[in-house]
Structure formats: C-alpha cells, structure tokens
Specification:
Layout lengths: L2 H12 L16 E2 L6 E4 L20 E7 L8 E9 L9 E8 L8 E3 L4 E3 L3 E4 L9 E8 L12 E8 L9 E5 L4 E3 L5 E7 L4 E8 L2 E6 L3 E3 L7 E9 L5 E4 L3 E6 L3 E2 L4 E3 L5 E2 L3 E2 L3 E5 L13 E2 L5 E9 L2 E11 L4 E2 L2 E2 L12 E2 L8 E5 L5 E5 L23 E8 L7 E8 L2
Parallel strand pairs: 1-3, 12-19, 21-27, 29-34
Antiparallel strand pairs: 2-10, 3-9, 4-8, 4-10, 5-6, 5-7, 5-9, 11-13, 13-16, 14-15, 14-17, 17-18, 17-19, 20-23, 22-25, 24-26, 26-27, 28-30, 31-32, 31-33, 33-34
C-alpha cells in the first residue's frame, strides 16, 4: 500500500471518532492565565462560535479562549505557544492562529479591539502586545486551529502549552515574616506569634508548619506557640490572590517548649473507713500531691487515699521552671444510693430504677432476678438514664408485673462491697 493511501485511510478512520469539546471552547468559559504558569491547551474538538469569535485577521474555525487581568501597573505582555503537536492527518490544518483582544464588554464582538498582531505558527511562536496594556483590566487571548492549506478540509487539531509573562501581568511577590516575644515556653503557656505580610492585597491562606509538618491552615495571621507539641521550628507559608496565587515562606522561629501536664484523674466515692485508688497521670517531672497526710505516697501519680471526710486533692507536676496543676475529689459517705422502688407507668415520674452515683463507676455490673430466680435484667453500664432499668424484661422489652425483684450490684472498684437487696415495681 502506498504512503498516500495510508494517509487517506488514516483520515477516513480518524473521522469515525468524536472528540470532547474543550471547556474553554467559547469566550464565556475562557481559561485564566497567570504569570509564568504553563497551561496545556488543545484545539481538538473545538468549534467556531458565531457572535463571540473575533475574525479580525483570520476566519475562526476551531477557537479556544484564555483571559488574564493586568496588575496595578499595566504595561506589555508576551504570550508564548510551545510544544505544538498537530494531528498529522493531511486533510487537517497544520498551524495555530492567535491574537490578543480587549473586550470593553466581555465576549461581545462589537466591543473587541486587537492589542497584538495576528500570530501564526506551526512550531513554537509568541504574540506580544503592541501597546501598553491598561492597569487592572481583563484581556482575552483567542487561539484558532487553521483550516487553510492545499487539500485541507478540517481545522487543525493541535495540543500546545501556553504561558504569559511581562510587566503587565507579573506580580511583586508577597513578603511575609513572623515574630514572637518569648521563644522559651512551658507547654500551654500562651505566646502569640504574629505574622506581617506586605504586597498581598487579598491574603487567601496562612499555613503554619512545625518542623515542616502542617499544623493548621486558615485565615488567621496569628498562632499560639503555647500549643506546640514540643521543641522545634515554626514557619509560615502565606498564599495571596485566590485566582493567580503567589506565595512566600517566612524564616523559621525556634521554640524551646518544655512538655508539662498534670491530670489528677476522676473523682472517687468511698464509704467511711474506706480507701480510694487515685488515678493521676502527667508528663515527666517531680510529682507532688496536697494534702499528702492521707495519701500512701504524695510523690507518685497513683497513691491510695484514706480520708475520713470528703477531701479535694491537688496534683502538681514540676519540670524545671514549668508546673502544671489539676485536682480531684474523694467523696466520703454513702457510696451509692439504691432506690427501693419505682413506678414505670409512663408518666415520666419515677419511671426508672435510680441508683444515685452509679455514673461514677464505669465498670459497674448489675443483675436483677425475679422471685423464681430467673434473670430479668443485666448490664455493665448504668451511667445515663437510657441505661437505667425501666421494669421490662431486657430480652423482649415486655413489661414485668408489679412485684419484688432482687438485685446484685458489683461496683468493680477494688475492695468496694457487692450490694444485694430488693427493689419493688409498683404499677
């Protein structure tokens, strides 16, 4: 088969396929150009758009559109078209055409004015503004796949890169810095780090990094170094302009943060003459409880308390010049109060069996039996009202008859006693 026959066969078969239309096929969907940012474009699948295409120096046949807004100074721009790759079908054009346009009314042909010579290229080429562009003004770039040439019946299908540069589009980079008064801290001490940013009219993001790991990102230009997890370097990356983003990274500030933490643990309930295991914890350092007279060891996190009356204990952890303090209570008296009856009649008054202080025992376990010894209720949690017994058989939810039932309650707390007794359902 001859080469010409192969090319004709290629053209024949190529036309059997359809191509998706580029998103920027028309002026209204022009893609944004940003200074020195390379965008990939294509005329494959593009069409002409009567009423919005500009046929000033060529007849549009497959146009795609770009736009940009000049900076506050204005001036000239250059638009570069590089890496042009054409569909080699001999029935298709093999050149791009382009021009720079001012539209005083967006995408309205009567308002178009050319601001560059018509650019044409089969390989890399550029177009440049012929006069200085006005400041803070939007301009358009129209790109067309030509359908001209001997034997050409279709518009050029071309992939390309487009880049814009020049004084009218270039931006002065933002300049950001951060400052703090104190850089030697105890964890939790408030130390506000302030950011100062210039050349950034519309800051879109402050991204704070600690040891090169992102801590937070948002619109706040301050950060509290007292929340840093340890010693290391804090820096800020500022992003300006929501459309054509430019960034600056600050110098890092080294913070020496001493970890310090104290957690006295949950409150405890004991009967007269009883004892409580205190569940304190915290960071490394010197441990001190006050008052210490009723503790087995006031210098450890988990002493045993034997107060004769309700007492508040304070835990202090010291690490160098840093301290942290927390407190807990040991309540002395009746550990739990078990109500002897309840009336589950749906009037929202005494409808469930109440065990006062049951929420203080995470591992509490309760069994309830009827007169025949059959288990009617069992739970390992009695902390909230939705867990309380409502006088029904747990497996079926059916109401139990008015009668006396028998309970066993194990607080699961060290040497605390197991409670046994009866509770009456009154209907």
């Amino acid at each position: 088969m001859k080469l010409n026959d192969l090319l004709l066969l290629s053209a024949c078969c190529f036309n059997l396929f359809s191509f998706a239309q580029p998103a920027n096929n028309n002026c209204a969907n022009a893609e944004r150009l940003c200074s020195n940012v390379v965008l990939g474009g294509t005329t494959t699948g593009a069409t002409a758009n009567a009423g919005t295409d500009y046929d000033f120096c060529y007849t549009s046949s497959s146009t795609v559109w770009y736009m940009f807004t000049t900076n506050s100074a204005g001036g000239n721009v250059t638009i570069d078209f590089t890496n042009l790759v054409f569909n080699p079908d001999v029935t298709m054009g093999q050149q791009l055409e382009s021009m720079l346009i001012l539209a005083t009314t967006p995408c309205s042909v009567p308002s178009y004015f050319p601001y560059s010579a018509c650019g044409t290229g089969a390989t890399d080429y550029s177009i440049t503004s012929t006069v200085a562009l006005a400041a803070n003004t939007t301009y358009y770039v129209q790109v067309n796949g030509t359908n001209l040439g001997v034997g050409v019946t279709q518009s050029a299908q071309c992939d390309f890169d487009i880049t814009i540069s020049g004084p009218a589009i270039d931006k002065t980079p933002p300049l950001a810095s951060i400052s703090a008064t104190n850089t030697v801290l105890c964890f939790g001490d408030s130390e506000i780090v302030d950011a100062t940013v210039t050349n950034c009219a519309d800051t879109s993001s402050f991204a704070w990094y600690f040891n090169n790991v992102l801590l937070s990102s948002g619109t706040s230009n301050t950060y509290d170094a007292g929340t840093l997890p340890g010693t290391g370097y804090l820096k800020l990356i500022v992003s300006c302009d929501l459309i054509c983003t430019v960034k600056d990274t600050t110098d890092s500030i080294y913070f020496e943060v001493t970890p310090i933490d104290a957690d006295a643990g949950a409150d405890k309930f004991i009967g007269a003459g009883g004892q409580a295991n205190i569940d304190g914890s915290g960071s490394a350092g010197t441990v001190s409880w006050t008052p210490g007279t009723t503790l087995t060891n006031a210098a450890i996190f988990t002493p045993i308390a034997t107060p004769s009356e309700t007492t508040t204990y304070f835990l202090t952890v010291t690490n160098g010049s840093c301290t942290a303090t927390d407190s807990m209570n040991v309540f002395v008296g009746e550990i739990i109060t078990i109500y002897s009856s309840f009336t589950p009649n749906g009037d929202d008054i005494n409808d469930k069996w109440i065990i006062r202080n049951s929420d203080q025992f995470d591992n509490i376990e309760i069994w309830i039996y009827d007169r025949s010894g059959q288990q009617v209720f069992h739970t390992t949690n009695y902390s909230t009202q939705d867990k309380w017994w409502d006088g029904t058989l747990k497996e079926t939810g059916n109401p139990l008859p008015a009668s006396t039932y028998f309970y066993v309650i194990d607080l699961k707390e060290g040497d605390d006693p197991i409670y046994k007794g009866s509770v009456t359902i009154i209907r």
